[in-house]
Amino acid sequence: MNIKKYSIIAASAIAIATFSPSMLPSAEARPRSDIDVSIGTVLRLPKTAVRINVGKNRYYHHGGKYYSKGKQGYSVVRAPRGARIRSLPRGYSRLVLSGAVYYRYDDVYYRKISNGYVVVETPAVAEKETIEDAEEAYETVWVGERKLLFKDGQFFRESPEGLVWVETPIGVTINSLPSGFTTIWHNEIEYFESDGAIYRKTPNGYKIVEKPWDGNDLPESNPEEEFVE
User: Fold this and answer.
1) Do the domain assignments include residue 58?
2) CB 103 within 8 A of CB 109
3) Can you list the alpha helix ranges (DSSP code H) found in the chain?
């Protein structure tokens, strides 16, 4: 009986003598997965990020930023020349150089292609589009004393650098609907939706209005009346 008791005491003494703080789990060895590991690097990208292949290299695009995957996550990189995206980020500028149209966002320049936009080298000189040329291609609308230009469902303001995208102004009336609109009936009233904007027909044209239904409801739409260019 005493032999067994002394054996247990001896084993406990050996365990205490051989214990080292290094045997405890290290906080540095197990970094939290929801913390960025460095500036300009994120561990996860939003689900809406788009994968882009440029040659043999793979990138990811989201919100006008380009990312490359590494061991510690996704790092912001310079926009790769030749990268193609379907649509431009909101807030882009439209520039004209010797008759050629460029689009710029966050110092990245794009050219229009058949299925979207492609990243190109920065042009040497960017010329402001003249008001005469702009008014030939865009519809001029006024929000109080503020002049805006409208085309393809998008609104722009003039700036020294060219045309800059602005949020859709509520209450503005345009002459015709943008292409690709959808007809929606709500409480027996006909509305038209295009790129998130809601229009209602008036004697003077189509007025942009607030969404008359709750965001969680899905009003009746008529896809047969959708117009596709």
Assistant:
1) yes
2) yes
3) 2-18, 131-137
First-last CA distance in the chain: 95
Per-residue model confidence (pLDDT) at position 113: 92
In a domain, 22, yes or no: no
The predicted structure's pLDDT at residue 64: 87
The domain containing residue 175 runs over which residues?
131-225
- Phi-psi group of 84: left, alpha or beta (phi > 0 → left; psi -120 to 50 → alpha; rest → beta): beta
pLDDT digits (tens, 9 = 90+) for 6-46: 554 445 444 444 444 444 444 333 333 333 333 456 778 88
The parts of the chain modelled with pLDDT lower than 70 are 1-41, 98, 125-137, 161-163, 215-229
Q: Residue 87 and residue 82: Cα distance in Å, rounded?
A: 15
The answer to whether residue 203 is domain-embedded is yes
Predicted TM-score of the model (pTM): 0.45
- How many distinct structural domains can be found in the chain? 2
Say whether both 108 and 174 belong to one domain.
no
Nearest alpha carbon to residue 178 among 205, 145, 160 = 205
Domain boundary among 86, 120, 154: 120
